[in-house]
Amino acid sequence: MPSPPAADSPVSDPNHRIYLDHAATSWPKAQGVAEAMVDFMTNVGASASRGNHASAMKANELTRSLRSRLTRFVNAESAECISFHAGCTSALNAVIHGLVGPSHAIGKDSHLLVSAVEHNAVLRPILMAANSANAMLEEVPSDAHGSLPVDELIGRINDATRLVALSHVSNVTGAVQPIADIGEAISRINQSRDASNQILFLCDAAQSLGYLPIDVQALGVHALAAPAHKGCGGPPGIGMLSLSPQWHDQIQPWMQGGTGHDGRSDEMPPSMPQKLEPGTMNLPAIAGWLAAMDSMATRQESALVLAERSQQLHRGLNAIEGIQVFGRPGPLPIASLDFGPDLPPDDAAAILDAEFRIEVRAGHHCAARIHKYLGTESAGTLRISGGHGTNPEEIDAVIAAVAEIAAQITSLT
Ligand SMILES: Cc1ncc(COP(=O)(O)O)c(C=O)c1O
Q1: Are the C-beta atoms of 388 and 233 separated by less than 8 Å?
Q2: Which of the listed residues 297, 332, 359 is the one where a domain comes to its end?
């Protein structure tokens, strides 16, 4: 297999690593995140909505600030639309199990549309909820790069359709889905329906929040779920759901517990966002996410830079003989690839790590169904994903390493 990097290469520094696994989680975290978390743990430490002392007030203030910051960031109708969850997965479960079920707003005989590129965080709760509701689930296929056919998707909406769930960006190929077109079509259909028969447009923004601008009202998205730890550069363990007001009365609390409000009642408070927020909040993560949002507001890097990295990555990979590349140049530097039967993605990732100190991910990336359309069902793909701060040298290094590995395979076969 390929020889280790030359002694004068930056990669030869034993402390150097090239982190290209941003689609799993961003690293390094945004400036100020770790400090804000340590500061909270060291100097505040209190719970939000659980007391009137000065430290509890500080915790309340942090929560309020982050909620209003995110309200503006995604242009939600009001701060009540934003609820905090243990991550994007929890936010997705809260909205899916809160609205789809046997005695829920979206129930028996409903038709639910999901795409083939969905992450298990969407697919698994929808499968379970559809089953318990006796609803019908239909999958919209993707092309060989993870892009969805908009007209076909819209054409599959029928009178019984009550939910359309889509990832904004594929975590396998980086394909950006045309959610504005789909949102517009759903809004048009909803206008001709009564209030009890509306279609919920759910968007999984795990791979896009903090990378791409999101305006839920302009996009016609009713429910948007996202974590702090990817594009925003925040910590893991916290995520948000933005839910538009027309669904507030209909959503049922997925989890029950203490909220710090209406403590004498046996039931969860009826108001948003409290009805979706049982349990003690992850305040250190809230402090960290807020710092990440501050850092984002002052970041110099433009969307253009990320798009340039994407061009560079795809151009470089596509020029390499003997590999197949999935995904196209776009706004984010993500690509998946396959070295063919002689080198499974897991082994390729291990070589990149051990011999080049380049960290990428191999496998199905928790999105099994898309691999049917990529032709990579058995072993998945090798995914290279850059993010904020990824520099051109790092992209060049991974391209050179992949070329070297591909050349070795070709010479052996
Ligand atoms: C497209 C997509 N959706 C949902 C998730 C789940 O996010 P989390 O693990 O932060 O809950 C991920 C995480 O990788 C993802 O890539």
Answers
A1: yes
A2: 297
